[in-house]
Specification:
The protein is an alpha/beta fold. Helix content is 46%, strand content 9%. The chain has 21 helices and 10 strands. The strands form 2 sheets. Strands 3-4-2-5-1-6-7-8 form an 8-stranded mixed beta sheet, sandwiched between helices. Strands 9-10 form a two-stranded antiparallel sheet. The chain is elongated and about 105 Å long. The N and C termini lie far apart (64 Å).
Length: 532
């Protein structure tokens, strides 16, 4: 296994992934190994865990559109794909990039050192027979990998055992993926016992979680409002956090909308979700850094718990009875460690789960507290992580265009079907006439009531009129900067019309552009602006 090297020298890293790998091997792994972290919480990390592409995990009850969602993103079928109203996907399928189409079965997949799945071997043959990797050349998969999961069962079906711990497998994936997407069908919002168990297993990963209310085009607006409220109520009972989970509403497939009333809503929601997924490659290093910090905090707590139990154990007689006593009093031990080492209660592992795992352990073989191991991790958190954080920002600045491309993402980027094309400040972008000219006669009437001097109105006069919109001064100030094209502190009739047009854009709920688009520049000013 990894070498236990705690030599304190200034760490120099070529990149973030290499830095995380070295910190884990030299500083965190020795602590994990000594205090049996891998038996209680999560297997040891491998090189592939630091080098792999961002992964998206799709979770949902059967027939919520998980596989169709993947096909919609990639605009291409993948090997092993099956779609139907019944529980069709009966396997975990890792959809990854490859030069040729093909399927790698689970048993072969977990021995490949280049894939981040080797530790799934612990779940046994019952799981591995239901695990595969679908490889294919697709531009979307050049940036991310997608994990399709079996549909979560409901009713009588959930009584049939899968032969492996489904929730534990999902928890393993949740620790390693960058985004978890929970899919719900607008027609069936019942959350089964198995689904509730799964969501609770994902409890420590709410920051990665997004919710998609799929097939929303099949119901009316009034029904959709009720379904959305019911979904939020159901999720609130299972996800015990004060924050509201982000829910995206839409119909994620390439078919005509059945009820097109909410088309604009679905387009905006899809755009938001796509932007979230597209940002994953850019934020991948930060996510791995964040996960390593979470892991280090848990490993520290594990060390304090194990060493405390070791300290309480008798050297000769009564070991078994003492072990039972310590397990039943584990809550008190948590409280003592919390006060003694100033550790947040949120950093401690689940009490009931920890008690269950401790039952099968030999306390006499536990290690006593080794301050040097803890000091190495403290040094990593206090110093090395800060240096890596700075490197993350540098890497992000060096690769600003690192986004997911291809598939459905291309259709919403450019052209007349791009999100927001021809709306708000983009209205009239491909027209020959100045779009502001349509309403200019009505704006001119107001302009001439402000007593212009030499064809221009002062800032004070324009301000009185612009304040009637009731927009905040910060917004009106930006509109003034955009409308005062020649920067003379006055507005002529064209600039005044432009200011009113931008006010209308904002009042209709659109964002203002950071700079004035070329098609909004007043005709008389176009030559001078283009020269500048």
């Amino acid at each position: 296994m990894f070498r236990k090297n705690l030599k304190k020298d200034p760490e120099l890293f070529q990149n973030v992934s290499e830095g995380l790998r070295r910190l884990y091997r030299t500083k965190l792994f020795p602590l994990e190994d000594t205090y049996r972290f891998h038996d209680f919480h999560s297997p040891a990390l491998e090189d592939a865990d630091f080098d792999n592409k961002p992964m998206v995990l799709l979770v949902g009850q059967y027939s919520t559109g998980k596989t169709t969602f993947i096909r919609h993103l990639m605009e291409q079928d993948f090997p092993g794909m099956r779609i139907g109203p019944e529980p069709t996907t009966d396997s975990f399928i890792a959809v990854m990039h490859g030069e040729q189409d093909g399927v790698i079965p689970g048993n072969a997949l977990v021995v490949d050192p280049k894939k981040p799945f080797r530790k799934l071997n612990a779940f046994g043959n019952a799981f591995l027979n239901r695990f595969m990797c679908a490889q294919m050349p697709n531009p979307v998969l050049e940036s991310i990998s997608i994990i399709d999961t079996p549909g979560i069962l409901s009713g009588e079906k959930q009584r049939i055992s899968r032969g492996y711990d489904f929730a534990a497998v999902l928890e393993w994936f949740a620790e390693r993926v960058d985004r978890i997407i929970l899919l719900f069908d607008a027609h069936k919002l019942d959350i089964s016992d198995e689904f509730s168990e799964v969501i609770r297993a994902l409890k420590n990963h709410e920051d990665k979680m997004r919710v998609v209310l799929n097939k929303a085009d099949q119901i009316s607006t009034q029904q959709l409002m009720r379904v959305y409220g019911a979904l939020m109520w159901s999720l609130g009972k299972i996800i015990n956090t004060p924050e509201v989970v982000r829910v995206y509403i839409g119909s994620f497939w390439a078919q005509p909308l059945l009820v097109p009333d909410n088309r604009k809503l679905f387009e905006a929601e899809e755009q938001d979700l796509f932007l979230d997924i597209q940002s994953l490659p850019r934020n991948a290093a930060l996510r791995k850094l964040n996960d390593l910090i979470k892991r280090a905090r848990l490993a520290k707590v594990q060390a304090y718990i194990i060493s405390s139990l070791k300290k309480e154990m008798p050297s000769m007689f009564g070991k078994e009875s003492k072990k039972k006593e310590l397990i039943s009093n584990l809550g008190e031990i948590y409280h003592r460690i919390e006060k003694e080492h100033q550790i947040s209660p949120g950093d401690f592992p689940n009490l009931a789960k920890m008690q269950e795992l401790l039952n099968g352990q030999d306390f006499s073989k536990f290690a006593a507290l080794k301050p040097k191991l803890l000091e190495a991790v403290e040094d990593m958190l206090a110093n090395d992580i800060a240096r890596l954080m700075a490197m993350v920002r540098q890497e992000e600045a060096a690769m600003p265009s690192q986004v997911v491309k291809g598939g459905a993402f291309e259709g919403t980027m450019t052209g007349p079907f791009g999100h927001g094309y021809g709306e708000g400040a983009s209205e009239g972008i491909d027209e020959l006439e100045w779009v502001v000219g349509r309403d200019k006669p009505s704006y001119d009437e107001i302009f001439y009531t402000l007593s212009p001097i030499n064809g221009k109105v002062s800032g004070a006069a324009a301000k009185k009129e612009m304040l009637k919109s009731k927009l905040p001064n910060t917004v009106l100030g930006k509109i003034w900067k955009l409308a005062d094209v020649d920067k003379d502190g006055l507005l002529d009739d064209e600039e005044f019309a432009l200011a009113n047009h931008l006010i209308k854009v904002k009042l209709e709920g659109h964002e203002l552009p950071p700079t004035l688009p070329e098609h909004l520049v007043p005709p008389s000013k176009r030559g001078t602006v283009l020269e500048e």
